[in-house]
């Protein structure tokens, strides 16, 4: 079996573009991968246009480790977000192909499941006015939808420090959410790398009475010593990792013991097998794994198969029930969240099937999503003008095909 073609399809939404990658073989089998690139979709497509002819075409999709090593090593560059995301889309699609060829779900090819259900938490649900009353109502809808865990960033557009009024507002928002969901629902606090260590510690202490299960990325990701400084001064578990892209990036995090939970993104960190290795390594440090997932249905499928086989898995992020639920129609087949949990995926491979017509009906948008802009939480990205053109976002050129 050989890979004979790779095709890309970009689906646009109000605040994110989802890139689906189809890997096609000479035996008629094909697999699908996916990644949400934050403001870097063109860079991903450009990388694939060069990498696919040199590394992927003609390769046996069943030889996944060899393919990943070739893509990682042979460009002779330090791999970062773009390269590792491109590798991940191909790698995930190859697992899909292998599972289909054998008639088995991917998790059975990775050692088999260690759990029958996969706990989920909702994100993207608080696209409302930033008041305690509106956050309270929105949080109630999350619980009514069946979730038993939810995450929020209550800090507005804050960076490094917060004004006293903004600190009080953030605390009031979290207090309102805790009141809405009750004492038994997990509450996760996202900080998006906003703060200096002193502010992160102060806010963690202010929020401790509401018993959050973690604070996430309290400081920017470049300085792990600063993260350790926070971890040593707070009683809430610290989570991080969505902006680390290789196992080598995680090494100092482990050695410093600067976090309690790691959050690698399968689609930005080389794919399923790479995160499987990383999770096993994290287990040596007694760290839990809660994969970052801001993607669509294929990204979610990959995450569920990984969660099924990972002993130190904690909980799975999910956007697509309370934010742009229609996105799930792009590749149906995933189980639904019931009483806070996904069941194990069914069907061969990833268990989802890309609907190319549906994706084509939602073309790529020219958008810029900025987590430090005012009212970013409404998830209505800015549509910058196209240089030299008056074209609207609905008049974008088609996404390139890698052939």
Offer a concise description of the structure.
The chain is α/β, with parallel strands linked by helices and 403 residues long. The protein has 12 helices and 12 strands.
Structural summary, described in words:
By secondary structure, the chain is α/β, with parallel strands linked by helices. The chain has two domains: 3-103 and 355-395, Enolase-like, N-terminal domain (Enolase-like, domain 1); 107-343, Enolase-like C-terminal domain (TIM Barrel, Alpha-Beta Barrel). It contains twelve helices and twelve strands. The protein has helices at 41-56, 64-73, 81-102, 106-109, 132-144, 164-181, 197-207, 224-231, 247-256, 272-283, 297-309, 356-360, and strands at residues 3-12, 17-25, 30-36, 117-122, 149-152, 186-190, 214-216, 238-240, 261-262, 288-289, 316-318, 341-343. The strands form three sheets. The protein has a six-stranded parallel sheet, covered by helices on one side. β2 and β3 (30-36) form a beta hairpin. α7 packs parallel to α8. The longest helix has 22 residues, at 81-102. The radius of gyration is 21 Å and the shape is globular. The two termini are 17 Å apart. The relative contact order is 0.17. GO terms for molecular function: lyase activity. Residues 132-237 form the Mandelate racemase/muconate lactonizing enzyme C-terminal domain. This is Dehydratase. Residues 383-403 are annotated as: Disordered. Keywords: Lyase.
